[in-house]
Write a structure and sequence with these properties.
The complex is a heterodimer of chains A (165) and B (213). Chain A has helices spanning 69-82, 112-126; strands spanning 7-9, 15-18, 23-29, 33-39, 45-50, 90-96, 130-136, 142-147, 152-156, 162-164. Chain A has 165 residues and is an alpha+beta fold. Chain B starts with 8 loop residues before the first helix and ends in a 7-residue tail after the last helix. Chain B has 213 residues and is α+β, with helices and mostly antiparallel strands. Classes of the chains: A alpha+beta (165), B alpha+beta (213). Chains A and B meet through β3 of A and α2, β3, β6 and α5 of B.
Chain lengths: 165, 213
């Protein structure tokens, strides 16, 4: 994986849209989920780094839409469509949603990964965006990178090397 | 309006003292455990964005050894003891008397993992019990969980609670240094205490400062 000048970095609870020659990446996904939305023909895509399943828990006045699965997927879809993607050709690939620490007493906080994945899938279903591939769960962190030309998501982990979906 | 806007410099000073007491006792515990001199820096209390918090722990993709606790009781929060791999190796070598220990070997012994977990446990225990004595709040740590992973993936767990309230967090960061004259490697472990948003009024009240001051 390269980390050169043509990489757009997406932080935690953040989103952005990418067109060639740029690629887009987000690092250190744990229980968070990285959602890539792209047009299956036109070379354009977007990435959102989601932290929490549902914006209803939000207590802050100014809602950061990129933080929550329900709002993040929806707003990202709007943004890639505004930039030239077609709604009917929109596809998704997702990665993350791991359980980083194993506790014998599981609280809601510890199961946040699977809940994030479920919420992302629900949001995709509601928007009728087909989920083409996923690499979710486990207990490892992930760094993901999306290339809008090849439409491949490259996933890097600490112990399991690099793979592509 | 987020709680962060209600925090004044006085509040940050109070939190600094809060961290000072806890970390002072943790430093003593570490010193006794290793039978070596341990230095402690004045705690750093900062209001940081979620991304900055991850940067403080080494950066999203940096692989670190991290012991994680939930603080339970009157003022819940999350607590991390973060070490670089080299530093964690060094501590494990000292605790297990196995100078050859390295993370990159095929299998990491259970003893090594357990030693590091126990180290975190002792430090968190002494940190919290001294805070508990000082504030009369009931505070205790959950069972420690150890993970060797990307800092971003680990620290984000501690940000789940605060992120429901805003995009900022207050962190009490304490550095414990143990110099090693032989190898020139110093162990600079960071203790990050991230109280849950609901805990701040409780902490301030226990220390005699109101949230409206």
């Amino acid at each position: 994986m390269t980390d050169s000048f043509n990489t757009i970095r997406v932080g935690i609870a953040d989103m952005n849209v990418v067109k060639p020659p740029f690629i887009i990446r987000t690092a250190g996904l744990g229980s968070c989920v990285g959602v890539v939305l792209f047009d299956s023909v036109v070379d354009i895509g977007g990435l959102v780094h989601i932290m929490l399943p549902d914006s209803e828990v939000a207590k802050d006045g100014q809602l950061n839409e990129a933080k929550y699965a329900d709002t993040g997927v929806k707003v990202l879809a709007e943004r890639v469509i505004k930039q030239g993607a077609r709604a009917s050709k929109l596809k998704a690939k997702i990665a993350g949603g791991a359980q980083m620490f194993q506790f014998s007493v599981g609280s809601d906080l510890m199961r946040i990964g699977p809940r994030n994945v479920a919420a992302v899938k629900k949001a995709l279903l509601e928007l009728q965006i087909e989920l083409l591939a996923e690499d979710c769960g486990g207990n490892n962190g992930r760094t993901i990178e999306f290339n809008p030309i090849s439409k491949i998501v490259t996933i890097k982990t600490v112990n399991q090397g690099v793979k592509s979906i | 309006m987020s709680y962060v806007h209600e925090i004044s410099p006085l509040h940050l000073d109070v939190l600094k003292e809060f961290g000072n007491i806890g970390a002072g006792n943790a430093a003593t515990a570490l010193s006794k455990l290793l039978n070596k001199k341990v230095d402690m820096k004045v705690p750093n209390v900062r209001v940081v964005s979620l991304d900055e918090m991850i940067e403080m722990a080494g950066g999203a993709e940096k692989v670190v050894a991290c012991v994680f606790f939930r603080v339970e009781g009157d003022a819940p929060g999350s607590m991390f003891y973060v070490l670089s791999l080299k530093q964690a190796e060094f501590l494990i070598q000292q605790m297990t008397d196995d100078e050859s220990f390295q993370f990159n070997k095929q299998s990491i012994s259970e003893l090594a993992i357990s030693a590091l977990q126990e180290l975190g446990n002792i430090l968190a225990g002494s940190y919290l019990s001294s805070l508990s004595d000082f504030t009369q709040l009931n505070l205790y740590a959950s069972v420690p969980a150890l993970s060797i992973e990307m800092a971003g993936a680990l620290i984000s767990i501690g940000l789940m609670e605060v992120s429901q309230v805003g995009d900022f967090t207050i962190v009490i960061d304490t550095q414990l240094n143990q110099d090693n004259s032989q190898s020139n490697l110093s162990v600079n472990g960071h203790f990050f205490l991230l109280p849950d948003p609901s805990s701040f009024p409780i902490i301030f009240q226990a220390l005699g400062v109101s949230m409206d001051d």
